[in-house]
Design goal:
The protein is an alpha/beta fold. Helix content is 47%, strand content 11%. The protein has one domain: P-loop containing nucleotide triphosphate hydrolases (Rossmann fold), CATH 3.40.50.300. It has a 6-stranded mixed sheet, with helices on both faces. The longest helix has 25 residues. The structure holds adenosine-5'-triphosphate and magnesium ion (MG).
Length: 315
């Protein structure tokens, strides 16, 4: 499919899930099983569309890298087994690994706990020309840390700073941080992979029953599942307070992995496309240099240093 068509179709898959103003956002308005009318019989076509998307994305990323002006930060948040890892793997499968950086944020170390909450993430903001992926992020500071107050206690903040406003203040700080990054040429897109509780159960059972998936199972995942309702409140509040035109959230239906991947790929394609990327234009001087180099190669006038270094004879 021509690239133009792929880009046009991408918009149709990403726009319905993009939140740029969270004030009226409600999680229950987005169905985790949504497929925009596509059924399982459309899966093969969907796979083809994803392959086209991955190709378009690779071309765009090549220009992003060559141009070396913008950086792109993609943030992934989700409940366990929603498919973060698989989505990152499939969507980025065509991208040159040199132009891409992935960081997975786990429970913080004691060194990290001794700093402000953005510190550990700031170090991994992507360089210009790169796509950086955060697999979990500073948003955990308004999710797991909010659901389990013991995580907040471990941060040993001065007690007078820990008030009932702390989450509102964190949202404010995150918004300011994201505005700051945006003003520095870092384009931010955030994805919440929205899986249903029933589908999570099905995937956990698959991890328990399929020997090849056993390694993915963690007893802690079941413990966290018990806090499902608290997490949903925290996610909704997070999206309401941190969706912005410059750093939108995409609330992507995640009960069907094939659909999640298409929707995320579409959002990334649309984002890169909007940057109007071009390969850098070569200067007149550089063009002359290229012509001279070509002439030397073709015309047999290459310089040679032959004879300056004598090889050692093996003992
Ligand atoms: P997967 O399970 O697919 O390997 P994952 O992202 O769930 O991926 P885990 O190692 O299972 O990785 O979990 C990381 C854990 O670290 C999560 O439970 C997450 O909530 C927790 N975590 C991340 N950031 C923080 C934070 N700032 N404070 C406390 N816990 C955090
Ligand atoms: Mg996990």
């Amino acid at each position: 499919m021509p690239k133009k068509d792929t880009i046009k179709r991408a918009r149709g898959f990403s726009e319905p899930f993009r939140i740029t103003d969270g004030s009226k956002f409600r999680l229950k308005d987005i169905d985790p099983g949504e497929t925009l009318g596509l059924g399982s019989e459309d899966k093969p076509r969907a796979k083809g569309a994803l392959a086209n998307g991955v190709e378009a994305l690779a071309d765009l990323q090549d220009m992003l890298y060559a141009q070396d002006r913008w950086a792109v930060l993609l943030i992934f948040q989700a409940m366990d087994a929603a498919g973060k890892d698989g989505t990152i793997k499939h969507v980025m499968s065509g991208v040159n690994p040199q132009g891409c950086q992935v960081y997975s944020f786990k429970s913080p170390s004691s060194e990290e706990l001794d700093h402000d909450f953005l510190w550990r993430c700031m170090k991994y903001v992507p360089e210009r020309g790169r796509i950086g992926i955060f697999n979990r992020s500073y948003y955990e500071e308004t999710l797991v840390v909010r659901v389990h107050s013991e995580f907040l206690s471990r941060q040993t903040l001065p007690p007078e700073l820990v008030t009932k406003d702390i989450w509102k203040e964190r949202f404010q700080d995150i918004r300011s941080f994201e505005r700051y990054l945006t003003r520095n040429g870092v384009v931010i897109r955030k994805f919440f992979l929205h899986v249903s509780k029933g589908e999570q159960k099905r995937r956990f059972l698959e991890r328990l029953e399929n020997p090849e998936k056993n390694w993915k199972f963690s007893a802690n995942d079941i413990k966290e599942r018990a806090f499902w309702d608290d997490y949903m409140v925290a996610y909704e509040d997070m999206i309401r307070h941190t969706a912005s035109p410059e750093a939108p959230w995409y609330v992507v239906p995640a009960d069907n992995k094939w659909f999640t991947r298409i929707a995320v790929a579409a959002a990334v394609i649309e984002t890169l496309e909007a940057l109007n990327l071009r390969y850098p234009k070569v200067s007149e001087e550089k063009l002359k240099e290229l012509a001279a180099a070509k002439q030397a190669l073709v015309g047999g006038k290459e310089k040679s240093s032959a004879g300056k270094i004598a090889a050692h004879t093996p003992a």
